Amino acid sequence: MSVLVQGGTVVNADISVRADVLIDGDKIMQVAPDISPPTGAKIVDAGGMLVMPGGIDPHTHMELMFMGQVAVDDFFTGTGAGLAGGTTMIIDFAIPAPGASMVECWKDWSVKAEKAAADYSFHVAVTSWSDKVHEEMGILTRDYGVNSFKHFMAYKGALMVDDGVLLHSIGRALELGAICNIHAENGDAVFHMQQKLLASGIAGPEAHALSRPPGVEGEAAQRVIAIAGLLGAPIYIVHVSTQEATEAIARARATGQRVYGEVLAQHLVLDESVYQSKHWATAAAYVMSPPFRAKHHQQALWAGLVSGALQTTATDHCVFCAPQKAMGRQDFTKIPNGTGGIEDRLSILWHHGVGTGRITPNEFVRITSTNTAQIFNIFPRKGLIAPGSDADVVVWDAHASRTISVKTHHSQVDFNVYEGMEVTGLARHTISRGNLVWTDGDLRTVRGAGRYVERPVFPAPFRAIGIANGLAAPKAVTRP
Ligand code: URP
Ligand code: ZN
Ligand code: ZN
User: Fold this and answer.
1) If you average pLDDT over every residue of the chain, what do you get?
2) Choices 3.40.50.920, 3.40.718.10, 3.30.43.10, 3.20.20.140: CATH for 54-385+453-461
3) Lowest mean pLDDT: which of 135-139, 149-153, 357-361, 466-470?
4) Rounded CA gap, 383 and 376, in Å?
5) Of 80, 280, 423, 445, whose CB count within 10 A is highest?
6) Cα(203) to centroid of ligand 3, in Å?
7) Nearest bound ligand to CA 318?
């Protein structure tokens, strides 16, 4: 079955051209002006609109069991919400309990993800260190299409790893040609401050932000950058939310260290005032880690995107309903951490980024899709409108507006962090694997239509970074 996207302007990360896009099956066949429709082709009218690579969200947690609760969007509803907003692929996190098998965890996640409506892949978390972890990192890269491993420097007593684990794991990933993802918050400091706040009787959601001040993130970001620098390994820091961490990444990059940074759409436009709500459930709905920050951090994050210190945008979509958040009514440390927004990321980035002149449409494509595809080694299959690429396409109406609301969103969660925000720029049509799955407000997702996307490890030159630094091949001094 072929689809012809007709009359639009194709916007890739590098160039915009007036062209039609012909799709055959799940691949793009041709990108050229005035393509004659093949017999029986479905025509998608893109007149006056932009035709862009579907968004890739590099950070989601569908149906994650976390802090005693299961996130309410599963792989079907979560990817469906993404498609309604122009996101055609997610990279979720397979997170084993410390000591559990990473390969078995990958298998568990692939069973959960069978119902996905859009393409998906998994980063796999390293939550402890052992010979088995060393071996399984090798198996996952060789046989399961995994090229990225996640580490939590926060969540003490649960998922947190110490510097020893980071050293082992980042070194092992370098050896394999994989990249490590890091949640950078000092978990010991957070725990310490949580206990002090609780002891002083501050137990509401506002204490969540107080227990994780910017320095907690800045310290952890600098520490992991230093560790990766010792090893000569690239790293990717997830959900950067502070000026401190952004500047640490920028400094590292300026000295030639390969450090990538991801920012969440939420952190770019929401601030810490959300925790001052007099309504407990509203304040709790914004509890996520890292928390929302003082406004000046937003400026630093935008600057990070514009200057290239930060390369990708994500959502960390991990949603819990009010009764689940209420588990922390008496104690903020028990509020399950997480917020949503997979459906809204592209609109938020367009409205507040392109709409304000901070970024160009091409830069928008780069930070919502192409950079993620390149960093996680699935480019040009994903992140590009070109012959041979996957037919994951969003037809973007740059002039239409909508008001974001829980009443109209497609996620299962009972709250929208952007409630009432009017945004200009929306997905008019979304094509996933060659199928028109979102058109003029009509969501036509198919359970199980998504496929697992293997991400091969990087070839030898990537692995040679440590060797180039003289770190991977130390030599003993020869003495008589
Ligand atoms: O609050 C968050 N971010 N929840 C999901 C887990 C994580 O830290 O990414
Ligand atoms: Zn995190
Ligand atoms: Zn996360």
Assistant:
1) 97
2) 3.20.20.140
3) 466-470
4) 11
5) 80
6) 24
7) 1
